[in-house]
Write a structure and sequence with these properties.
mainly alpha; about 180 residues; about 60% helix; homodimer; 2 strands
């Protein structure tokens, strides 16, 4: 397997267990609160990750392999998380995310992508031409963006509680590069 | 137990397992690289967390309970991580962090802190008067600061690999509020 792809898969495979270890059965102060109007709670983020597993990454891999630059990806629905979280507990969402991620990585491994496949190109609705390699790397960094966001959203709940220490705590200085 | 303290302990108890699930056996691209000169890799961060478990949080709790504002805390050694990481693998560090955190939380629970204890005051070498409640809240947000940092450091390794997607990935916009 191409080294970069192997690294990417290693990370993608671990995210669900890491989120489960961190968030399962935590008090709702940490998991259900957000950073204010039109921002996401950790639960919302997990629902968004589920939405991506269903409609974003693997469907786009299939489009690249089948159609190349001749078929633009469906725009990703940033509101898709609302349907995913409906009537679900955080624990149910964590399990759903783990199941979908595992299935998607199995499908990806079964594709046996060669280095030349990773250079195949697709057409993103707003970014234009992208490569499969770039998209798979983005999948991993997208996980990291949301771990970064979850840690920031959780820290926000204790912004006042830490008193004068706030100036030493980097996460409290983060301006929120990904409010959603 | 005072609700805020219970929430704080819930988070503190989960951090070691979350970091273990995420980082154990990951390729070194993710765990040993940093963001450039004088910045920390994920491995360095775990060594820093160990250093805090040994010399920062619980020792300061003891000082507050025993001496109140009459004894200034020892300044925390930001270079302490260098000794902790020496000759250790990431996996050894993750285990050491988990062991120390578990011991420290057991000690904290055994103190049976009452709400009025949480208002007791101590003297921080640069911040001045702080309360025990503020310090315990800071312990939790300090974990979150370093999760935030680890996700940012890891994302940095794929800054070029994601190509045009970089502008959509919040973690890549983070200016690094906690370079160490």
């Amino acid at each position: 397997m191409e080294p970069n792809l192997s690294q990417t898969l290693s990370l993608l495979a671990r995210t669900p267990a890491a989120l489960d270890s961190f968030l399962r059965d935590l008090p709702e102060t940490w998991t259900l609160r957000n950073e204010g109007e039109n921002t996401w709670s950790p639960l919302d983020v997990i629902a968004h990750l589920i939405s991506g597993e269903r409609t974003d990454w693997i469907p786009r891999v299939r489009i690249i392999l089948q159609f190349g630059e001749n078929k633009t990806f469906e725009p990703f629905d940033m509101q898709g998380y609302i349907q995913e979280r409906q009537d679900k507990t955080l624990e149910q969402l964590l399990e759903e995310f783990a199941r979908l991620r595992s299935e998607n990585l199995s499908e990806l491994r079964a594709m046996n992508l060669r280095p030349e496949d990773l250079q195949r190109r697709g057409l993103h609705p707003s970014l234009g031409v992208v490569t499969l390699s770039q998209m798979l790397s983005t999948w991993a960094v997208h996980d990291l963006t949301h771990l970064h966001q979850i840690s920031r959203v959780m820290a926000h709940q204790y912004r006042d509680a830490v008193g004068p220490w706030s100036k030493y705590l980097g996460v409290l200085q983060c301006a929120g590069h990904s409010s959603t």
